[in-house]
Amino acid sequence: MPSPSCQQTRVGFGPKYITRPTIGADADSGPGLSAEQHDRIFETFYTTKPNGTGLGLAVTKTLLERMGASIDVNDRSACDGHAAGACFRISLPAGEPR
To answer: Which of 15, 54, 79, 89 is the most exposed, having the fewest neighbouring CB atoms within 10 Å of its CB?
Structure first.
């Protein structure tokens, strides 16, 4: 599947199943990710915040994978050509309509 461009997006879920494969992406304009951060960002208890727990992205990835979905992260420059930031992409599988 070709990689879609990364853009700021809000994703909402209604009462019906998603009837086609869907990709949502969210980008920021922060400092981006170091190589270590990129490699470890979904590890349980990995955090760069002084008071962080390191659970948010690990739990998010686990829950998405249990639903047959996936999440990945890239430097924003690889997504849409902007110089700084990170881009998270969530891919949701198609389901049966209700």
So the answer is: 15
Domains and CATH numbers, the chain: 35-92 (3.30.565.10)
How would you list the strands of the sheet with 86-92, edge to edge? 22-27, 86-92, 70-75
Yes or no: say if 18 and 92 are a contact pair by the CB < 8 Å rule: yes
pTM listed for this prediction: 0.69
| Local structure of 70: helix, strand or coil | strand
Query: Which of 50, 69, 47 has its CA nearest to residue 60?
Result: 69
* CB-based contacts of 80, cutoff 8 Å, min separation 6: 5, 6, 7, 27, 87
* Percent of the chain residues topping a pLDDT of 70: 68
Query: What tens digit of pLDDT does each residue of 10-56 get?
Result: 445 544 556 667 777 777 888 888 889 999 999 999 999 999 999 99
Q: Which amino acid is at 54?
A: G
